[in-house]
Amino acid sequence: MGNGKDNKNGDYVLLRPDRRRDTRKPILVLRVTEARSNVFFGYAKNISRGGLFISTVNPRKVGEEFKIAFDSPVDGKQIICNSAVAWIRNYSPETKLEAGMGMRFLDLNEEERKTIDEWVKLKPKKR
User: Fold this and answer.
1) 78 pairs with which residues across the strands?
2) How far apart are CA 31 and CA 55, in angstroms?
3) Separation CA 91–CA 68 (nearest Å)
4) Measuring CA to CA, which residue among 26, 57, 46 is closest to residue 103?
5) Is residue 38, in this structure, part of any structural domain at all?
6) C-alpha count within 13 angstroms, C-beta hemisphere, residue 44
7) Cα separation, 36 vs 33, whole angstroms
8) Domain count, the chain
9) Across all residues in the chain, what is the average pLDDT?
10) Which of 2, 40, 110, 125 sits between 20 and 30 A of 10, alpha carbons compared?
11) C-beta separation of 101 from 11 below 8 A
12) 57-74, pLDDT tens digit by residue?
């Protein structure tokens, strides 16, 4: 485990919370689609200005790049950006961790980054 890779097959990097550069916001459901074809990928479970985690049983390959789209709850605008799969977690009945993929944003502009920062700082609404 010293190299940060999964010992079984080396196809994803284990990310510890203390290694994250950006504050993350857990979100209940964020529908993420591939921008060009409007193909549904899965639901985002957390987001930061650097990327997001998409819960899916069919993650793409590490390094694969594509456009994704999602709506911001801050201003309602759709954010479309190029992204790359940074790491994957395949389904395993031996863990409670969800299968999915960590996505890295490649080309968010500063306004979109600020919108995500505002979103991360929002306090959850009481029910």
Assistant:
1) 71
2) 10
3) 22
4) 46
5) yes
6) 22
7) 9
8) 1
9) 75
10) 40
11) no
12) 888 899 999 888 888 878
